[in-house]
């Protein structure tokens, strides 16, 4: 019997992840878990969070979180804990167009989108999102549940904390550390270290709260 995958969350991020999964041809069956009925590329909603305990007993082997996040990862963290405790396998999903160095480390639940690049020595913790066309250069570290948005560039040896959002088209200078729970606005250029729990944007980036 082939592997069966549940996508947890049926919004826009689900569409992107599903397209990558269908290109990989890894799963025999795919279903969506959401409170609202959706159908994408012939894949439909088959239940809600409450149905997950019965679905794993029915042979659904894998689960992947397809709820996106911009500055608030609480839902993704809750869902990760739930599917982990239920015993689902939580895969890494890598779009076939992404480019990864041989020694990259990627932990479970992470999504690597179309034409993203991860260079040598990069390490990505659990349930991160590396979105379309993002560039993660050598020896960068990305914390759990962080989101590197489309077109962002992380230069060499950048450290991104957990639950941090790097807005689309942002550039993080080499050897910069951005701590946990930071929101970097789209198009920002970050040239100094950033403390935890702030919002920063602009060129050069300035903390606004």
Please tag this protein with its features.
209 residues; alpha/beta; Rossmann fold; UDP N-Acetylglucosamine Acyltransferase, domain 1; 2 domains; 8-stranded mixed β-sheet; 6-stranded parallel β-sheet; 3 helices; 15% helix; globular
| CATH fold name of the largest domain | UDP N-Acetylglucosamine Acyltransferase, domain 1
Radius of gyration, in angstroms, nearest whole number: 17 Å
- H/E topology pattern: EHEEEHEHEEEEEEEEEEEEEEEEEEE
Query: DSSP strand (E) fraction?
Result: 25-35%
Structure class: alpha/beta
Q: Number of helical segments? A: 3
Shape, please?
globular
> What is the number of independent domains?
2
Distance between the termini: 52 Å
Helical residue percent?
10-25%
What is the CATH first-level class name of the largest domain?
Mainly Beta
The CATH H-level superfamily of the largest domain is Hexapeptide repeat proteins
State the total count of DSSP E strands: 24
The CATH level-2 architecture of the largest domain is identified as 3 Solenoid
Largest sheet, order of strands side by side? 6-9-12-15-18-21-23-24
User: The biggest beta sheet, please?
Assistant: 8 strands, mixed
Mean pLDDT: 96
């Amino acid at each position: 019997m082939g592997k069966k995958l549940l996508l947890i969350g049926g919004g826009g991020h689900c569409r992107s992840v599903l397209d990558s999964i269908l290109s990989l041809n890894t799963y025999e069956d795919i279903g969506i878990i959401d409170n609202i009925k959706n159908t994408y590329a012939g894949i439909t909603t088959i239940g809600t969070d409450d149905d997950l305990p019965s679905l794993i007993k029915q042979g659904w082997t894998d689960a992947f979180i397809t709820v996106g996040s911009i500055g608030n990862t609480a839902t993704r963290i809750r869902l990760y804990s739930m599917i982990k405790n239920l015993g689902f396998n939580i895969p890494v999903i890598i779009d076939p167009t992404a480019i990864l160095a041989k020694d990259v480390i990627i932990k479970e639940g992470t999504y690597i989108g179309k034409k993203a690049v991860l260079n040598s020595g990069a390490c990505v913790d659990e349930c991160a999102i590396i979105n379309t066309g993002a560039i993660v250069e050598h020896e960068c570290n990305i914390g759990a549940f962080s989101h590197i948005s489309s077109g962002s560039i992380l230069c060499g040896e950048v450290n991104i904390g957990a639950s941090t959002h790097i807005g689309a088209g942002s550039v993080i200078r080499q050897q910069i550390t951005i701590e946990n729970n930071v929101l970097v606005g789209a198009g920002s250029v970050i040239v100094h270290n950033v403390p935890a729990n702030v919002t920063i944007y602009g060129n050069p980036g300035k903390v606004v709260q």
